[in-house]
Amino acid sequence: MSKDQKKSGKGKNKKRASRSDQVRSAVDQAFQTAGAQLRPDRAQDIADELAAAAQRVRDVVEDALPPTTEDLKRLEQRLAVIERRIGALERATPVATRRAAAKKPAAAPRKKAAPRKKPAPRKPAS
Length: 126
Fold this sequence. Notes:
By secondary structure, the chain is an all-alpha fold. The protein has four helices and no strands. The longest helix is centred in the first third of the chain and has 34 residues, at 3-36. The N and C termini lie far apart (129 Å).
């Protein structure tokens, strides 16, 4: 290939590049025009969907995180309340009732049931 052919090839590449740039800019402009014509209610729907998706992501991330110190403190407080309630219930139960329930005798073994008698045979109808 001669130098002239190489130079003319470069010129074609520049024209091709400029044509591709023109096509890109035309497509870009078309998308911008179409985007500007987006209905306001549809834009609001898209924004609502995006906000809902973001909230779902936040919820999943919060569930995946380990508990914070505040969470642990709240759990400790709830546990303390439950312990106090159980203690009050145990103190309120009379001691005699607890002992009587503990001393119940074991059930006596069951006797085998006597075999059933067979019913009398029926007389044929005459």
